[in-house]
């Protein structure tokens, strides 16, 4: 993927503090088709009793270290964890370790990345940590599980409740309200993003889902591109027309990532954005606490005749690198982590942004009693009430089977690029559908 950016996850510096929030599971990663590793690493029994763990969740270091300490007390392994430095993703370190023939044994990553890694022959199964536990199993191939989810991070929007008279909900109301605010309040009513960024890609994909556009069809081994076929094409054109209309009431969002949209909201350059979880208010609270009470959460806009039935939620967790030197120990560690009594402490180390991976856990006392969540019960209600609609971009094959075309398309932010082709490049909505269909077809091979 020569044109794929080299960062998987963007980080947002919280101005005025020393903390970093990892922005949602952004999966733009270099191709990992090489299976570099130590000779026979993990294939004929562990050669090392040291498990190398690579994670970008340094802000959760305290609870992770507690889990590691408990694991080491109960197992004949030590865990050597590498936290990427603040503001950095794991990519650079991962590539260095692979190039040195010394890859990590455990990597904290996303389900879409996990499926690509499996496709390229790099993962060992972690079925014991997943199957029979109630955890989601998004990367199940041939009956084996290759990804152990630790959290979900659903997309959601935030709007100024002092400027919007009510939550607009529908495309039609969002358009009229964004127009009114843009013309009367001296602030853009909405943010539409475009370009090869994760925020733009999620946004445009979700708009299509809101209008019941089936982008793909078929089982994992025979994915078809359907966005330009029959009624899907008609609905996709409608979607791009609405996006183009809403862009009239938006600042220029070309190339914007999560932090750019949040900054527009914080600086009162825009009255509504689509983002992920409570990331906007967690960020804004440290700089503009006065603004937080003026922000309300919202699902993505939906056409008046449609229902909210498909909602993008990032899923992040652990994978085990097949060619590490402590593969069996790594599997045990991932299993232990998922079952640890500190597991919920890890999830709630970033409340409102990270949510537990199961609905049962969502209803736990740990969630209900979390002080941050108690201050924003509207967010928890939104997540709870729409839980059954949550899905990932990976689960877009037949009956929710993993879809490598969708994973690769997200890795290259094809849908984000499509909005740029229209809003910056001047393509019509019809031409934009043709463009994106051609790009997706190029990933089928």
Any key phrases for this structure?
globular, alpha/beta, single chain
Q: How widely separated are the two ends?
A: 13 Å
Low-confidence segments, given as residue ranges, are 1-22, 26-30, 34-44
Mean pLDDT: 89
**Strand residue percentage:** 15-25%
**Oligomeric assembly:** single chain
Q: Can you count the beta strands?
A: 17
Task: Summarize the biggest pleated sheet.
Answer: 9 strands, mixed
Helix content: 25-40%
Q: From the helix content, strand content and strand pairing, which structural class follows?
A: alpha/beta
Instruction: Give the overall shape, derived from the CA principal axes.
Output: globular
Helix count? 19
| Radius of gyration of CA atoms, rounded to a whole number | 21 Å
Structural overview:
With 445 residues, the protein is an alpha/beta fold. Helix content is 38%, strand content 16%. It contains 19 helices and 17 strands. The strands form 5 sheets. Strands 3, 4, 5, 6, 9, 14, 15, 16 and 17 form a 9-stranded mixed sheet that branches. β11 (216-217) and β12 (224-225) form a beta hairpin. The longest helix is centred in the middle third of the chain and has 17 residues, at 230-246. The radius of gyration is 21 Å and the shape is globular.
């Amino acid at each position: 993927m020569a044109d794929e950016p080299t960062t998987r996850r963007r980080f947002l510096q919280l101005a005025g503090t020393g903390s970093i929030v990892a922005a949602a599971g952004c999966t733009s990663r270099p191709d990992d088709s090489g299976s570099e590793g130590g000779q026979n690493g993990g294939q004929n029994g562990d050669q090392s009793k040291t498990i190398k763990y690579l994670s970008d969740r340094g802000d959760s270091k305290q609870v992770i270290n507690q889990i590691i300490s408990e694991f080491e007390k109960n197992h004949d392994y030590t865990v050597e964890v590498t936290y990427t430095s603040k503001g950095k993703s794991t990519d650079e370190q991962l590539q260095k370790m692979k190039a040195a023939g010394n890859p990590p044994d455990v990597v904290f990553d996303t389900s879409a990345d996990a499926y690509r890694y499996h496709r390229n022959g790099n993962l060992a199964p972690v079925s014991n940590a997943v199957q029979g536990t109630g955890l989601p199993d998004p990367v199940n191939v041939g009956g084996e599980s290759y990804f152990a989810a630790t959290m979900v991070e659903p997309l959601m929007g935030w709007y100024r409740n002092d400027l919007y008279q009510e939550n607009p909900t529908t495309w039609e109301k969002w358009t009229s309200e964004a127009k009114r605010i843009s013309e009367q309040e001296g602030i853009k009513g909405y943010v539409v993003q475009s370009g090869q960024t994760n925020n733009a890609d999620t946004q445009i994909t979700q708009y299509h889902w809101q209008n019941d556009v089936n982008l793909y069809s078929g089982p994992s081994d025979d994915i078809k591109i359907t966005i330009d076929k029959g009624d899907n094409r008609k609905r996709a054109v409608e979607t791009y027309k609405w996006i183009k209309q809403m862009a009239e009431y938006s600042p220029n969002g070309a190339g914007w990532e999560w932090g750019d949209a949040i900054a527009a909201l914080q600086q009162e350059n825009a009255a509504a954005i689509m983002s992920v979880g409570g990331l906007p208010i967690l960020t804004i609270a440290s700089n503009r606490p006065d603004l937080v009470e003026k922000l309300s959460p919202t699902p993505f806009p939906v056409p008046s005749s449609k229902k909210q039935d498909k909602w993008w939620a990032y899923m992040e967790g652990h994978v085990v690198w097949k060619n590490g030197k402590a593969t069996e120990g790594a599997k045990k560690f991932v299993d232990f982590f998922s079952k640890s009594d500190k597991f919920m402490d890890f999830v709630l180390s970033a409340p409102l942004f990270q949510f537990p991976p199961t609905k049962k856990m969502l209803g736990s006392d740990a969630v209900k009693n979390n002080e941050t969540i108690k201050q924003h019960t509207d967010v928890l209600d939104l997540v709870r009430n729409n839980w059954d609609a949550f899905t990932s971009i990976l689960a877009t094959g037949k009956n929710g089977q993993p879809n490598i075309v969708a994973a690769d398309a997200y890795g290259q932010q094809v849908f984000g690029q499509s909005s740029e082709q229209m809003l910056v490049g001047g393509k019509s909505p019809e031409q934009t559908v043709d463009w994106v269909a051609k790009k997706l077809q190029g990933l089928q091979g």
